[in-house]
Amino acid sequence: MPALVPLLDAGHAHLAGGDRDGLAAVVPALLLRSVGRADPGAVRLYGYDPEHLGGGLAGFAPLGTAGLLTFVGPGGLGRLLDDLVEQIRRINATVLAGEYASLRDLAAATGRRPEPWRVAVLLGGDELSRHERGQLDRVVRTGAACGVHLVVRGIELPDDPTVTRIVVEPDDARVAGLPVRLDAPPPPALVTETCRAVASRVAAGPPPTPFTDLLPPPDEYWREDSSHGLSAPVGEGPHGRQVLLTLGDYPPHALIGGPSGTGKTNLIFAWIGALAARYSPAELEFYLLDFKEGVSFARFAQGRRDPSWLPHMRLVGINVNTDREFGLALLRFLAEELRRRADAAKKHEVTKLAELRAVDPDGHWPRIVAVVDEFQALLAGRDVVAREAADLLEDLARRGRSQGIHLVLASQDVRGIEALWGRPALVAQFTLRIALPKALRILAERNDAAQSLPRHHAVINAESGLAEGNEVARIPSASDWETWSELQHRLWRMRPQDAAPARLFDGDAIPKLADAPDFRALTAPEQGVPRNPVALLGEIIDVQARSAALRLPRAPGRNLAVLGTRVDEACAVLDAAARSLARQYPPGAARFSIACLDPDADPAARALYEDLAGDASWYDEETVPELMAEAGDGLGAPGASRTPHFLLLYAVDAAAAALAGKAGTRTGLEQLRRILHDGPERRTHVLAWWRGVARMRADLGGAGARTDQIGAWVALDVQGGELGSSLYPGSGGPDWYPRPWRGLYFDRAVHRTGQVIIPYGPSR
């Protein structure tokens, strides 16, 4: 029969006898079977081997890389025993807490073991001091119930029912007085390979817990009230209890940090899911922005693959890495919502959201959680976007708490973000800190708890990162498609009847004019023509899917210049403008003259000409002077047609030579200037593309020529400094840095600063 030594959850082993080789074989056999049969990481070893300086446990050294083996040097026995006694005290006070007699009983009752087994291997040494002897006796008496065990050779242990005596003599071996035949010592290679495998498993981290552990029972969904705050579990603590994340008056906002691959996106999914299951869309709304490349958050919005959406989600922005203006637009939107709530609170003579909801129960006052992933991209640089974003963040962080607007900023690494860390008043508002493994500068300066975290874990700290606020949570797997989809579909089926899908902004997608709400809303009047026709130019980078609209009333300067060399984008702006204008006129009620002077633009211009059918006329380099003469001379002629006339000029600067000749009584350029100056008041508007600012100035009369007749422009691959003070208010031009398929739109009649737009994609 096997000779069993009761050790884990049972007692201690004391080795004695004259067969040193036999005793040396028993120790690795006991330890290997304990480590190898337990779950990886469930057994932690402490080695005290002053005579051989750890040589007696050399085969177990690979465990040290995973923190599962700690060697104690000569003179360190007292500190080791003190630590073991403190662990026993802590487990009794906080883990067993009078509810269970031992960790074994707790595990049997709950199915979970919140503490590892701790095995101290003491291999000889000097005579124990009085203090060391007292601590050793305490471990013997109380350790087994708390999973703290001793394997001792060369040190006497007191008689106790938990101590098993193993005596090995050259011709005799006994366990608890019974004779046994010892097994051969385990091969050194087996010990090393086993320990390496265990260390590798531990370094990889324990598998995440089920996402469903965070969710309430289905019949309790949407039962919580957010008047005083939001609270939901995000994971499991070391003692098996759920760790809660709370947003309210305190803590009001959160910072999340962790290097790539440590589970930041998964943590955000877990938190959103736990909140969304507890609070209805009337209690909670989400706004999500992801500045890194990727589409993980797109599943919260309606898509082709899955028509469902998360009912709480109002905005999802993905691939926003180059569109910092979209992040700024979100902050402006939240600032406006904060002003609206503050005005309502002032009207009702209250100060907090809970009070406002009590006095205005019919109002729509959900708590708002805005999550910005890789937020440092928004604050990068020293331009006007970074400055305004930092100012808005500081105001929202300071005043948002009282009105139920909460910010969650996430980043892989926040080092060097001057716009944030240079504002201590802003950082101080983010008292909830969540640090993933190896996160930097999220917790307080001397709090390095995140550096030793295993995978699928996070440090939750609601005390501004101070070490005394640390809680460690094991985060479930929440971000895979099937796991999340089940919850989202259930919540989607519960959505209110008037619920609308979240606005999805994809920085890598090119919007279509036909899909634009503003375009679909355009109609032709039943009689006459519109007094103020609108030309749509592209989609504004904004929280709402609005179109950049150029109004063309009968007023001076109501012309458009598209500036830059990008053919496709310039054609797209003119195409959208023409199609949106044509949609507002009955057939035959407006004229469209299309002059294409760049062969590369010909396909796009031809497609527009064909689609406008009988309302359009075609001109090229040879016939464009005729267009200028007809349009220019007709402006002041008696009985001239009052039909609205739109001149769409593609690469008009290419016709400089042709327009230099006579076109009637004036040159073609003179006629163009006359049309620009006098045309809008007579319903004749120019929408022209120039392939550079200097070329446009030349056509208008030279470097010193006035540009008042160009009331609006869209700059493509044109640097802000080129636009200058004559086209843009102030000096030096706008802060504009060109990038593909983006334009800066400015209308001097309505704008104080330019709007970044996305030209609509080809209509065919």
UniProtKB/TrEMBL annotation:
Keywords: ATP-binding, Cell cycle, Cell division, Nucleotide-binding. ATP binds at residues 258-265. The keyword Kinase does not apply. Residues 240-445 form the FtsK domain. GO terms for biological process: cell division. InterPro entries: FtsK/SpoIIIE/SftA, FtsK_dom, P-loop_NTPase. Pfam families: FtsK_SpoIIIE. The keyword Cell division applies. This is Cell division protein FtsK.
